[in-house]
Task: inverse folding
């Protein structure tokens, strides 16, 4: 059975456009694949462990080939539970609204928890980093309110899709389908643009 993890990085609930586009994809995809098992992670609702001093110490210990102990071991175990939920999936859907040219802070927290040596990536002094999650695939919904590809810098810059796409590549996920809605504020037809994005999501699901 194929397992899909949907990571919702929007705090806006049912008024979120990025979530609506992700749901449009999922509705169509589930109709196509009724055996699909979907796990939904809502980052602004589901609690994440802190990744502070103890966890950072555990990461350095693990990266150095040591075994974390004491509070570091406890923090490492909490991080591992978050990672296991991530790694168990075969496919992913992420909806990622742009925040201040980047990604929402809680998504960055989740990334910092799951992106650990020996779990999501390996390292060789001669050849560098290698992602350990190869063979998986992802759909990413990117939305923004003002920024759009090709706009002048006065309308924003993209450290949003550039960062997240690079992170996917870093952990080994290179089969990525992007769905974008940008922008709504600067166009004369925001409602029509949104409906078109929903239609593109359904079409992408039928081809996925």
Result:
């Amino acid at each position: 059975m194929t397992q899909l993890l949907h990571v919702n990085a929007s705090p806006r609930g049912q008024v979120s456009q990025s979530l609506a586009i992700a749901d449009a994809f999922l509705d169509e995809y589930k109709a196509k694949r009724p055996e699909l098992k979907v796990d939904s992670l809502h980052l602004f609702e589901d609690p994440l462990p802190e990744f502070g001093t103890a966890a950072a110490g555990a990461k350095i210990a693990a990266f150095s080939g040591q075994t974390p102990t004491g509070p570091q071991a406890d923090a490492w175990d909490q991080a591992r539970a978050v990672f296991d939920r991530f790694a168990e999936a075969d496919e992913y859907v992420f909806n990622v609204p742009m925040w201040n040219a980047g990604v929402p802070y809680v998504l960055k927290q989740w990334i910092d928890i799951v992106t650990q040596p020996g779990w999501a990536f390996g390292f060789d002094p001669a050849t560098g980093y290698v992602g350990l999650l190869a063979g998986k695939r992802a759909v990413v919904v990117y939305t923004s309110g003002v920024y759009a590809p090709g706009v002048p810098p006065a309308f924003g810059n993209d450290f949003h899709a550039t960062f997240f796409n690079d992170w996917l590549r870093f952990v080994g996920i290179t089969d990525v389908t992007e769905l974008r809605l940008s922008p709504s504020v600067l166009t004369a037809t925001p409602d029509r643009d949104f409906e078109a994005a929903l239609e593109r999501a359904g079409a992408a699901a039928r081809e996925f």
